[in-house]
């Protein structure tokens, strides 16, 4: 999972992460617990999350 520079740090993605694998400190970032499920990308209001193919 890649979070690009469009991230505004709103935390919307983190609230939907089943693995609690997103930290928001200024901007969001994934932790090692991320399983690349992509649910966070669905809820990102600024489309800042890129899901690997």
What does this structure look like?
The structure is a single chain. With 53 residues, this protein is α+β, with helices and mostly antiparallel strands. The protein has one domain: Alpha-Beta Plaits (2-Layer Sandwich), CATH 3.30.70.20. The protein is built from two helices and four strands. Strand 2 (22-25) and strand 3 (27-30) form a beta hairpin. The longest helix has 5 residues, at 12-16. The mean pLDDT is 96.
Which key features would you list for this structure?
53 residues; alpha+beta; Alpha-Beta Plaits; two-stranded antiparallel sheet; 2 helices; 23% strand; 4Fe4S_Fe_S_CS; oxidoreductase activity; 4Fe4S_Fe-S-bd
SSE layout:
Blueprint: E1 2-3, H1 12-16, E2 22-25, E3 27-30, H2 39-43, E4 49-50
Pfam families: Fer4, Fer4_4
InterPro entries: 4Fe4S_Fe-S-bd, 4Fe4S_Fe_S_CS
GO molecular function, one term: oxidoreductase activity
């Amino acid at each position: 999972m890649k979070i690009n520079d469009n991230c505004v740090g709103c935390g919307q993605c983190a609230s939907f992460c089943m693995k609690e694998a997103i930290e928001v400190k200024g901007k969001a970032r994934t932790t090692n617990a991320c399983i690349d499920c992509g649910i966070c990308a669905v809820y990102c209001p600024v489309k800042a999350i890129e899901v690997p193919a």
